[in-house]
Structure prediction request, 200 residues.
Amino acid sequence: MAKEHGRNDTRNRIAHLAARLMAEDGIEDYALAKRKAARQAGAPDSQQLPTNEEVATALRIYQQLYQEETYRVRLRELRGRAVKAMREFAQFNPYLTGSVLNGNAGKFADINLQMFTDNVKAVELYLIDNRIPYKTAQSRLYSGEDPRMAPVYTVNDDGIEIQLTVLSTRDLRAPLKTSLEGRAIDRAKLQAVETLLEKT
Prediction:
């Protein structure tokens, strides 16, 4: 019993350390934050790592305790920029995902949009035609057990990066995950994000 209690204490400590790293250092990747936090806690044993949900809960607590005013202002700004970008790219059926959607956005957070279109190249052509500078990368997502390599175009909106992950319209029919064992990525259409912005 004492051993189990100690393991839970360690998990809890790592969750709160990871939350602080995400809030203060701008780390967006849960796995990276947990690994760094485990090293800081002197417990690199992966069996003691908290879940992403535990870290997200700790992050919300941290932001409410230490960053409430700046966090609220920042989240409102990011959601406002997301709404603007979603209107700009409306023809590509954009959905907001990530920390700006779930409310855990730190001070260095990016805006993450998933675009669903039958013509994947059309997004890049739109950026070129409208002289919008961009960087390219790729992202691996999973639909069930099937991996999907999706192009990602990163644009800059006055210092805030917006990542546009471009997917096929058929990918809308199944939940997408960032890893095989992960949970489905939450996503929201423009109207839902506008409602969130009003409440922020």
